[in-house]
Design a protein that fits this description.
single chain; alpha/beta; 10-stranded mixed beta sheet; globular
């Protein structure tokens, strides 16, 4: 269960009630230009004055339930934000983070599906069956339907729930779609990646389809060649323009950027011509466009009367991919690994409702924590039978209190490629070190099995036209190594392995892994289903599993058989009675 109390809603009620008004018929088109406007200019002058807006629509009291805006970037590297020293300019992110709370001990999962599933359920992968890899487009798999989701819980307490962007939690049956998992509306893609302009995705040669949806149908009407980052932002603006800010809203904006393919509108390359590495240059342009989009979302929140009662959370879903332009320097490793570069993320909270604005939170925070934190802020209830792995960390973020979290199970993946030299003996008889796993307890982090690509990739690696690994720092571990131990607080870059120096600590963490593993559910990773081919679904990626139809056919078949049997019986009886009658007549 989530832990830690949160008295924020009560404190807010006692505070001064603010008045907000919005012009009902205000055209959304005024917000669809993509330039940086001054936030301070909003509400000033005859065209934008909130008072004028309030006069036309009427004024309502500020709700005690905050508007929640969760923005999830895709594959943004730890270094790829201005305030982490990047050469890529991110003025919006820098400003929002500086005025809010920067999360500098914040963890996610190393890939798309795992982070998204943990955010929306508050549970580790081992408790949903999604502990291996991602959900592939052709797999009959999705976030298990018996898991209650964050939007479902928010709807229970009156929230309007909307998702814009990348789903990537499965869609093989209609029940798996976002609109069936708690969202009132959905506009975006179902898969993990695709073309930013055409919205087409090929999973393998000949297995290609269209992937842009509005609610439960392909959004062909929106296929206008608009770059997805801008298109999603326009949709967010339309949602905010049409909703009543006196009623709470949950907006989950899962941008496609900066995931490959590396595409961006030409104007965003302007400031990055000097970057010789083509992947880094394209990545920089994509991130610049994303930063501008978030500026426009913030402008819309202010323009339409949401901002003063809003909580904006920004997070990357995993570490960056250096071969696709991302940088996690000075952290080790990359996306898809359990080194810090794969799981330590850019994250911050921006809100007028924060107590300690302009601060840095170095307490341990994990992506599962948003589930109980946001439900508590929304004045919702967390059912006692929901076994959460997340904690309520609002007071940690807002007031600077200690985090209730002392450990993180990064993952246990029993079907990932086994480390050749792993064994129970190497794990002191407690754990088979051939299995890929990683855990954090207080300052200590333990990895076992095959942890993945482990280079440090400094900025100089991007100085050439093509990928260059000569600049990378590499460590050749002694043959047979399958256990690593680091003090992350003292050594956040994972340069000094302490497993041989502190065997007792290793044993303690292995025991903790073993305890977690006893609670794991079976892995859900089914083989591909040929019926998933978009060619069989009008050229669109979408639900293909017709379980209900099969059942209907089966029921129909059973019913038909039953009717035949009954008919035979009836005929038999009819024949018998006729035979009797004929005998009687003849007698």
């Amino acid at each position: 269960m989530a832990r830690g109390g949160c008295s924020w809603p009560q404190r807010l009620r006692k505070g001064k009630m603010l008045a907000v008004g919005v012009l009902a018929g205000l055209s959304v088109l005024s917000l669809l230009t993509y330039g940086y406007l001054s936030w301070d200019s909003l509400g000033r002058g005859p065209a934008e004055a909130p008072a004028a807006l309030g006069e036309e629509r009427g004024v309502g009291a500020l709700s005690s339930q905050p508007h929640i805006v969760f923005i999830l970037a895709d594959d943004q590297g730890f270094r790829d934000v201005g305030y982490h020293g990047s050469e890529i300019r991110t003025p919006t992110l820098d400003k929002l983070a500086a005025e809010g709370v920067k999360l500098e001990n914040y963890y996610v999962q190393p890939m798309c599906t795992p982070s998204r599933s943990q955010f929306i359920t508050g549970k580790y992968q081992i408790h949903t069956g999604l502990q291996h890899s991602i959900i592939r487009p052709t797999q009959p798999n999705c976030l298990p339907l018996d898991n209650v989701t964050l939007p479902q819980k928010l709807k229970e307490v009156g929230y309007s729930t909307h998702m814009v962007g990348k789903w990537h939690l499965g869609f093989y049956r209609k029940e798996c779609m976002p609109t069936q998992r708690g969202f009132d509306t959905f506009f975006g893609s179902l898969l993990g990646s695709g073309d930013y302009y055409t919205h087409f995705k090929c999973d393998s040669p000949g297995i290609c389809g269209y992937d842009l949806y509005e609610n439960d149908n392909a959004a062909w009407d929106h296929d206008n060649g608009i770059y997805s980052t801008q298109m999603y932002t326009q949709k967010v603006q339309q949602i905010l323009a049409s909703h009543d800010p006196r009623k709470p809203i949950f907006l989950y904006i899962a941008y496609q950027a900066v995931h490959s393919p590396l595409q961006a509108p030409g104007k965003y390359f302007e400031h990055y011509r000097s970057i010789n590495n083509i992947n880094r240059r394209r990545y920089a342009a994509m991130l610049a466009c994303l930063d501008e989009a978030i500026n426009n979302v913030t402008l819309a929140l202010k323009k339409y009367g949401y901002y003063d009662n809003s909580i904006i959370i920004y997070s990357s879903d995993n570490g960056g991919q250096p071969m696709a332009g991302g940088s996690n320097w000075p952290l080790r490793g990359s996306k898809g690994t359990y080194w810090e570069g794969g799981i330590r993320a850019v994250g911050f909270v921006h809100s007028p409702l924060l107590k300690n604005k302009g601060s840095v939170c170095k307490e341990l925070v994990h992506i599962t924590d948003w589930f109980p934190t946001l439900i508590t802020l929304a004045e919702g209830q967390i059912d006692e039978d929901i076994q959460l792995d997340g904690y309520d960390i609002w007071e940690t973020i807002s007031e600077g209190r200690r985090s209730p979290r002392v450990d993180i199970l990064h993952n246990i993946d029993p079907i990932y490629t086994k480390a050749k030299n792993g064994s129970w003996a190497a794990g002191y008889g407690i754990w088979n070190t051939a299995i890929q796993s990683a855990i954090r307890v207080n300052h200590w982090k333990l990895l076992t099995g095959n942890p993945g690509y482990s280079d440090w990739v400094p900025p100089q690696a991007f100085s050439n036209v093509g990928p260059n690994r000569w600049h990378n720092e590499r460590v050749s571990w002694s043959a047979g190594k399958t256990v690593w131990l680091f003090n992350i607080t003292a050594d956040p870059y994972e340069r000094v392995d302490l497993s041989s120096k502190y065997p007792d600590v290793v044993k303690q963490l292995l025991r903790r892994l073993s305890q977690f593993n006893k609670t794991a559910v079976p892995v859900r990773y089914p083989p591909k289903d040929p019926r998933s081919n978009p060619k069989l679904n009008g050229g669109v990626w979408g639900p293909w599993f017709k379980e209900d139809e099969k059942k209907k056919k089966s029921d129909k078949s059973k019913g038909a058989n039953k009717q035949k049997k009954n008919k035979k019986k009836a005929n038999r009886k009819k024949g018998q009675s006729l035979h009797c009658r004929s005998r009687l007549a003849g007698g």
